[in-house]
Write a structure and sequence with these properties.
The structure is a single chain. This protein has about 300 residues and is an alpha/beta fold. It has ten helices and nine strands. The radius of gyration is 19 Å and the shape is globular.
Amino acid sequence: MTSTTHVHTEINTQPDCWRRAAELALTSATHLPRAGERVAVVGCGTSWFMAQAYATLREHRGQGETDAFAASEFPAGRRYDRIVAITRSGTTSEVLDLLRDTSPHTPAVALTADAATPIADLTSDLVVLDFADEKSVVQTRFATSVLALLRSHLGDEIDTARRQAEEILAGPADETLTRHRRFVYLGQGWTVGLAHEGALKMREASLAWAESYPAMDYRHGPISLADSDGVVWFVGGSAPVGLIDEVRATGAHVVADRLDPLADLVRAQRLAVAAGLAKGLDPDRPRNLNRSVVLEDTAPAPRP
């Protein structure tokens, strides 16, 4: 894959960004959630999907009750020991509105790529991943670096994901998959958030029909759409017993390779960009999207 766009460069530099994120996790540990705290993780779009992945992982690691919300849907009146806000730009309106509402009574840490933004004035702690900032509208390395940082803070090792991603990036993307018309991404546990992210990348970069589900829920209706025109991608290769065979029986192309899910997401990113380029699209500037959603009226909408 020829590096002709910002997003190519940003995808290709992820392994090094993850190394730096793991190092940052050590030096910023006092700013991140402590074991036993009740935590809410918030973001929008890609950042929300990273929040979902982290929230599930944190609970599975026995670190405490953890909920993930799209920032606009944070439940008013619910109390947490800490809020973790993920925002690449530091200017996303919904995140800023939420922090204005909650800052008087809840400590918050923001994970951002730019400290010189309004987010710095609304949080008690700031963790800056400026090395993972991006020029492309489509998020890749910032989001995965945030997740690498949070996984490291939970005690996960990131070296396996880094090595696998380096091997993936050393070879060509499987552009034969771009001939398919429909893409479905499935996850289990913390990889459900990554499945949502894989589908979003495909929609953003290539304007393709893409969906995502918890793997078990795919049986409950969506599998009826599976056929030879579709790709069904099991993120990280994990699947409920029998489901891969059921999907193959539909004629759909199955991707189910045993990889660290973070490394597998790199493959999904590359496929989305390749699919977009095959259509003559510019993956750096997706249709109808901006790098940050900044609403003219930033006053928070009433919450039920």
